[in-house]
């Protein structure tokens, strides 16, 4: 059953996403140098299994299809070829850029900083998923993107 495509509802979602300050979160979780490719390569070294941080349900805006979304974060680990520490982030189920075997890594000087940046990166993953899915808690309540993880 497709979700009605209400323009005011889409605009409200966009305003909500802007309030979450996506740019600030992206900047905080971005590696200092080497860009996107470095985050993907570093995530391949993450220890398994990742810890499940949050379970949500996504309802696709396009066709109303329901999917289980699972947000996972790895334990901190040494970044390959670097003195940094990192944590990998995955959002399984939405088909987005974080829905891969390893996800993407957030970097820090120590485990605590890497974990904090991983939480920022996890929020980015959820923000991006909200552009294609209506995010809901497993009990059906709407997920509030403006609330911190």
In short:
With about 150 residues, the protein is α+β, with helices and mostly antiparallel strands. The protein contains 4 helices and 6 strands, in the order H-H-H-E-E-E-E-E-H-E. The protein has helices at about 5-20, 20-30, 35-45, 110-130, and strands at about 50-60, 65-75, 75-80, 85-90, 105-110, 135.
What is the element string, with H for helices and E for strands? HHHEEEEEHE
Gross morphology: elongated
Low-confidence stretches: none
Distance between the termini: 30 Å
Quickly count the helices.
4
Helical fraction equals: 25-40%
Name the beta content range.
15-25%
The average pLDDT score comes to 83
Can you tell me the number of structural domains?
1
Q: How many distinct beta strands?
A: 6
Structural class: alpha+beta
Radius of gyration: 16 Å
Give the biggest beta sheet.
6 strands, antiparallel
Question: Can you describe this structure?
Answer:
The protein has 149 residues and is an alpha+beta fold. It has one domain (7-136). It is 33% helix and 25% strand. Strands 1, 2, 3, 4, 5 and 6 form a six-stranded antiparallel β-sheet that branches. β1 (51-60) and β2 form a beta hairpin. α2 (22-29) runs antiparallel to α4. It is elongated, with a radius of gyration of 16 Å.
């Amino acid at each position: 059953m497709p979700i009605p495509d209400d323009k005011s509802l889409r605009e409200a979602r966009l305003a909500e996403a802007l309030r979450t300050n996506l740019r600030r979160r992206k900047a905080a979780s971005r590696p200092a140098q080497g860009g996107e490719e470095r985050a993907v390569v570093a995530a391949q070294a993450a220890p398994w299994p990742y810890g499940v941080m949050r379970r949500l349900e996504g309802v696709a805006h396009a066709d109303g299809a329901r999917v289980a979304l699972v947000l996972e974060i790895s334990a901190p680990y040494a970044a390959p070829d670097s003195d940094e520490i990192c944590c990998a982030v995955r959002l399984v189920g939405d088909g987005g850029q974080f829905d891969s075997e390893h996800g993407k890594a957030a970097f820090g000087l120590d485990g605590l900083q890497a974990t904090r940046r991983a939480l920022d990166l996890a929020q980015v993953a959820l923000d991006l998923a909200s552009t294609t899915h209506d995010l809901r808690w497993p009990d059906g309540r709407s997920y509030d993107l403006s609330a911190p993880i």
